[in-house]
Design brief:
This protein is of the alpha/beta class. Helix content is about 45%, strand content about 15%. A 4-stranded parallel beta sheet has the order 3-2-1-4, with helices on one face. A two-stranded antiparallel ribbon has the order 5-6. The chain binds S-adenosylmethionine. S-adenosylmethionine binds next to helix 2 and strand 2.
Length: about 290
C-alpha cells in the first residue's frame, strides 16, 4: 500500500484531530514568519510589478487553523508591499488565487466550511473590494508528482510536510518490516540536494530547534495551573496527542484501530520518562528558494 493512499492527519475538529493538536506547528510557522516576509519582500523588491493575479500554493496544507493563517499571512505581506509603493494604492494590489494542496485523504471539506468566515474576516479587515479579490481552492495530490502547469505559481509555501517521503511502501506483514516513511535531513544534505537538482537558487537556510513540548502553553490554556507531576503528565500527553494526530492514519493501516488508545497512552508515559533524562528537540529548517 502506498503511503500516499493512506496518509492523512486526523480529520475534523475533535479531541484527536490535527486541528486540535497543531500548536507546535503553529509555533514553528510563527518563528518562520520573518523569513517568509523577508523572502517575499526581496522577491518583489525594486518595484517589481505584481502579476494581475498572484498564484500561491501551500504544499501539505492539512486541515487546521494553521492552513488559513499561512494564507492570510502571505496576503497580508503582499498587500503591505503594494501599499508602501508610492505609485500603487490598495486597489492595485493583485488578485490572489490560492491552491491548498494535500493528499486526497486530507479533510478538505473542513477547510471549505471555514472559507465563508475567512472571506468575511478579510472583507472586515481590508474592505469589501479586497474580500472579493481572493480565491481559494484545493489541489489534491502528491507534491512528489506534478500538481500545476509549468511556471504557473508565483509563491510556493510548505511547512512541516516535506519530511514525509514519497516511495516507501507500508509492509503489511510484521512489526519488523514496518517502516515509518519520515526523513529529517540536516542543512548540508538539503543544500546538496538543491545544488544537484539545479532548478532553484538557495536564498536562505536557517536552522532552529524547538523543544518537543513547544506550543504546550497556548492562549487557550495559559491560565491553567499544574503542579509538577501534573505538568509532566500533561506535557507527555500533549506530545503523544500531536504525534497521534499526525501518525495515526499510517499506524492504523499496519496495526489496526483497537490498539491505538493503548499505544498512545504508553507513548505519553515513555515520553515523560525520556524527557526526564534528556531534552528532546525538533530541528527545524527554514528554507527560501527562487526559481532560476
Ligand atoms: C504535519 S502536517 C502540516 C500541515 C500544515 N502545513 C501545518 O504546518 O500545520 C503535514 C501534511 O503534509 C501532507 N503531506 C505529506 N506528504 C505529502 C505529499 N506527498 N503530498 C501532499 N501532501 C503531503 C500530510 O498529509 C499532512 O497534511
Amino acid at each position: 500500500m502506498e503511503v500516499e493512499q493512506v496518509l492523512h492527519m486526523n480529520s475534523g475538529v475533535g479531541q484527536a484531530s490535527y486541528a486540535n493538536n497543531s500548536s507546535l506547528q503553529r509555533m514553528v510557522i510563527s518563528i518562520a514568519r520573518p523569513t517568509l516576509k523577508e523572502s517575499i519582500t526581496e522577491a518583489y523588491c525594486n518595484n517589481k510589478v505584481f502579476p494581475e493575479c498572484l498564484r500561491i500554493a501551500d504544499l501539505g496544507c492539512s486541515s487546521s487553523p494553521n492552513t488559513l493563517t499561512v494564507v492570510s499571512e502571505i496576503i497580508h505581506i503582499i498587500e503591505a508591499i503594494s501599499c508602501q509603493r508610492s505609485n500603487q494604492q490598495i486597489d492595485k494590489s493583485p488578485a490572489f488565487q490560492v491552491f491548498l494542496n494535500d493528499l486526497p485523504m486530507n479533510d478538505f471539506n473542513a477547510i471549505f466550511r471555514s472559507l465563508p468566515s475567512f472571506y468575511e474576516r478579510l472583507k472586515k479587515e481590508k474592505g469589501d473590494k479586497f474580500g472579493t479579490n481572493c480565491f481559494i481552492t484545493a489541489m489534491p495530490g502528491s507534491f512528489y508528482g506534478r500538481l500545476f502547469p509549468n511556471n504557473s505559481m508565483h509563491i510556493v509555501h510548505s511547512s512541516y510536510s516535506l519530511h514525509w517521503l514519497s516511495q516507501n511502501i507500508i509492509e503489511a506483514e510484521s512489526l519488523d518490516k514496518f517502516n515509518m516513511p519520515l526523513y529529517f535531513p540536516n542543512e548540508k544534505e538539503v543544500e546538496n540536494v538543491i545544488q544537484e537538482e539545479g532548478s532553484f537558487s538557495l536564498q536562505k537556510l536557517n536552522a532552529f530547534e524547538t523543544a518537543w513540548d513547544t506550543g504546550f502553553i497556548t492562549i487557550e490554556n495559559s491560565d491553567k495551573k499544574y503542579n509538577d507531576d501534573d505538568d509532566k503528565l500533561e506535557r507527555g500527553k500533549y506530545i503523544s496527542d500531536y504525534m497521534r494526530a499526525g501518525l495515526e492514519s499510517v499506524l492504523v493501516k499496519q496495526f489496526g484501530e483497537t490498539v491505538m488508545d493503548e499505544l498512545f497512552q504508553r507513548l505519553a508515559y515513555k515520553v515523560i520518562e525520556s524527557m526526564a533524562k534528556e531534552k528532546w528537540q525538533h530541528k527545524n529548517l527554514v528554507i527560501s528558494l527562487t526559481k532560476k
